[in-house]
Design a protein that fits this description.
alpha+beta, Alpha-Beta Plaits, five-stranded antiparallel beta sheet, rod-shaped, DUF881 domain-containing protein, coiled coil
């Protein structure tokens, strides 16, 4: 009976131990399966996140490229507008110069005033024509002023232009049909220093006029105003 009792106890212990081992195995297996399922889900989420990130980065690259292309187009448009603006500015400037040259607008600024007078003394035996101002003298002064950069010129207040006609009619000079007696005051708008230097150069216009017995006065002016041509706006 004692042996049987021991066997019974041993059998019970073996059964319990087997149950515990089986339970532990099943529990461990379940935990491993659950861990695998969690790992798989994490991997799937990470894969989705990675794909989303890749797609987002590709979209960003496409948007960045589109931005660069649009910026380049904007730059080209701005350059074209700048060129057009410069062309328009040049055209407006040219139009203003043309209007100034044809006498449509008033012009003002610094310049010089040249006064030509007949000789104050004429010897009795001399030819009086050699002591008065002729159209050639006026032409010499006007040409020198134009060459030196004068923007506008007038004789006794009358604007002259590229097609103006100057001629002597006895003791007077006709400018585009309008007669002017001496003295002749030629006013020119431009750089007064340049114009004055050009007229006073040694052997230049002033010396030639003096040699022709013409009284010459040259004065710089801070402000000269030349009105538009009669009949123009």
């Amino acid at each position: 009976m004692k042996v049987k009792g021991n066997h019974l106890i041993l059998s019970f212990v073996c059964i319990v131990l087997g149950f515990m081992i089986s339970f532990s195995y099943q529990f461990t297996k379940t935990e491993n399966n659950e861990a695998n399922r969690i790992t798989n889900r994490q991997w799937e989420r990470e894969y989705e996140y990675r794909n989303t990130l890749v797609k987002q980065e590709e979209l960003n690259r496409n948007l960045q490229q589109e931005l660069f292309e649009r910026q380049e187009k904007i730059r080209e448009i701005e350059e074209n507008l700048a060129d057009q603006e410069q062309v328009l500015f040049n055209l407006v400037e040219d139009v203003e110069k043309l209007r100034m040259y044809v006498g449509e607008i008033k012009i003002q600024g610094p310049g010089v005033e040249v006064t030509l007078e007949d000789a104050s003394y004429v010897p009795s035996e001399a030819n009086v024509n050699n002591y008065i101002v002729h159209e050639g003298h006026l032409h010499n002064v006007i040409n020198e002023l134009l060459i030196s950069g004068a923007n506008a010129i007038a004789i006794n207040g009358q604007r002259i232009f590229h097609d103006s006609y100057i001629s002597c009619i006895g003791p007077v000079v006709s400018v585009d049909g309008t007669q002017h007696p001496a003295p002749f005051v030629i006013t020119a708008v431009g750089d007064s220093d340049v114009l004055d230097a050009a007229l006073n150069i040694t052997g230049g216009v002033k010396d030639q006029l003096v040699n022709d017995n013409i009284n010459v006065k040259i004065a710089k002016q801070q402000q000269i105003i030349l009105e538009p041509q009669l009949g123009q706006d």
